[in-house]
Amino acid sequence: MITFTINGLKASAERGTTILEAARFLGFPIPTLCHMEGLTPYGACRLCIVEIGEGENAKLVTSCTYPVEEGLKVRTASRRVVRARKMILELLLASSPQSKTIQDLAAAHDVRQQRFRQEYEDCILCGLCVRMCKEQMVAGAIGFRGRGEDRSVGTPFDIKSEKCRLCGGCIYVCPVCQLRCTYTEPEKAICGGCANLSPPCIEKDRFNDIMCYMDPCVACEIKENEE
Amino acid sequence: MKTLDVQNIVKKHAGNAGGLLGILQEIQVRYGYLPQEALRIVSESIGYPLVDVYGVATFYRSFSLEPRGKHLCSVCLGTACHVRGAPKIYREFKNHLGIEAGQTTPDREFTLETVNCLGACALGPVVVVDGRYFPSVNSTQVEEIIEQTRHGFDVELIRGDERVFPVEVSCHRCNHSLMDPGYLLDGYPSIRVTVSFRRKHGWLRLSSLYGSHRVESEYEIPLNEVVSFFCPHCHAELTGPTVCAVCGAAMVQMIVRGGGTVQICSRHGCKGHLLDVA
Ligand code: SF4
Ligand code: SF4
Ligand code: FES
Ligand code: FES
């Protein structure tokens, strides 16, 4: 057994447990994107970062790939972690705003702006599909090709793979394939809709007498508070 | 492409866990590209998933999945060349050859590629064709460069003495011609390479007459000494992964103009060689 502290709490875990597993077991939430139980950790999305060490030596590591160590001091939501995490989400939004998973994560972590050049990538190279195909479906039909800017996921030679068993596992795990609700402004990176809790009736006076069937409605509550 | 050839290449690397790169390199040298069929055979013979073999093959720039043209034109689009108008030069090449970067003309003559800095920024915009540097290129020169290449530089250079030489070889990495029309051996332009052995480093000239074993070198090479061969232009090691059938020393590979490779034994005095014209 290895003993360590996590957010000030003394804890212990089996050797080989990752910080993520330990934290989740103890009830400290850590957001993840490229992690999935049953697939080898990959450390691609960096969303699961936590801070370890103290003072000068404190550093950010990805908890899904970092095994607990004796005497390790982990902080899962320090100011530094939160800031870095928001930045990562902002970058993810910049590349794939159409993904519901990313939108939900951004909303849940209070990301309210996207300051980078907007792109509409259909893959964030998280590698979930590749691992799914290889490890769970034992097919090995798809993999990474190329490198740098040209890196992509697909079948060898871009032709239909004879290994693929058409199970759909790759599509099932993909965080980008699932489209988000685009609300009223499909072009906007942050949808600003339901999860951000700012329906148009708040700002726009002309919606004052709008017929609304939502009850209770957050917008109405906010308005009441303001009055 | 012959299945047996590929299998032989694979067999040579058998038992070597990191052998994939070596295998792919050898196939690339042999065919000038990685044929789809070859990758499938490699995957099957070494029991490594095809996706991963394909992943490695597409990762490195030195591998090509398409047959390459006889001439390689690299247009530098690095920062220094860019501000000096390289994009215009590149467009010019595209227009003249009718292909995009990374593609080969249908007649298999030219392959066009862009590079990010060749380390000769002061000469920008730089274009390299078959290992030959063209400095401060302007767009009107592009057509000329292409035409000259089509003709063959060496033919151009030794025009007038109307000689044809039996083998004309170039470096397998930079494709720069290794022929030296200024130094004749057996009455023909010699093949110039750089050799190094026992801390000595100097030129070596081989007769281009296939079958003649005449060599001249800057330093006296002891008999049976195995020496390292380098390209005098890009300094790439010419010694390849294959070994001599006669003495077991490493073979030196060079590309034969017009397709194919020639291999000679790197041991001084050994007459092992292999000509493989496609
Ligand atoms: S559908 Fe094909 S590519 Fe996707 S996980 Fe299944 S076997 Fe792999
Ligand atoms: S296709 Fe989807 S699951 Fe696969 S790497 Fe891209 S984003 Fe991840
Ligand atoms: S979940 Fe850890 S890096 Fe993606
Ligand atoms: S930028 Fe072209 S040689 Fe450096």
Describe the structure.
By secondary structure, chain A is an alpha+beta fold. Chain A folds into two domains: 1-121, Ubiquitin-like (UB roll); 128-226, Alpha-Beta Plaits (2-Layer Sandwich). Chain A contains six helices and seven strands. Chain A has helices at residues 19-26, 79-95, 100-108, 128-136, 169-173, 218-226; strands spanning 2-6, 9-13, 49-52, 59-62, 73-75, 143-145, 152-154. Chain A has a five-stranded mixed β-sheet with strand order 2-1-5-3-4, sandwiched between helices. A two-stranded antiparallel ribbon of chain A has the order 6-7. The longest helix of chain A is centred in the middle third of the chain and has 17 residues, at 79-95. The N and C termini of chain A lie far apart (57 Å). The mean pLDDT of chain A is 85. Chain B has 278 residues and is α+β, with helices and mostly antiparallel strands. Chain B starts with a helix and ends with a strand. Chain B contains eight helices and 14 strands. The model of chain B is unreliable at 155-165 (pLDDT under 50). In chain B, the strands form three sheets. In chain B, strands 5, 11, 12, 13 and 14 form a five-stranded antiparallel β-sheet that branches. In chain B, strands 6, 7, 8, 9 and 10 form a five-stranded antiparallel β-sheet that branches. Chain B folds into three domains: 3-59, no CATH class; 71-159, Glutaredoxin; 169-277, no CATH class. Chain B has helices at residues 3-12, 19-31, 36-46, 50-59, 79-83, 86-97, 141-151, 153-157; strands at residues 71-76, 110-115, 127-129, 132-134, 169-170, 179-185, 188-197, 200-206, 215-217, 228-230, 239-243, 250-256, 261-265, 273-276. At the A-B interface, strand 6 of A face helix 4 of B. One FE2/S2 (inorganic) cluster binds at residues 32-35, 43-48, 62, 64 of chain A.
Main sheet specs of chain A:
5 strands, mixed
**Going across the major beta sheet of chain A, what is the strand order?**
2-1-5-3-4
Count the E strands of chain A. Answer: 7
Which CATH class of the largest domain in chain A?
A: Alpha Beta
The total number of structural domains of chain B is 3
Output the number of helix runs of chain B: 8
Number of helices of chain A: 6
Task: Identify every distinct bound molecule in the structure, by name, code or SMILES.
Answer: iron/sulfur cluster, FE2/S2 (inorganic) cluster
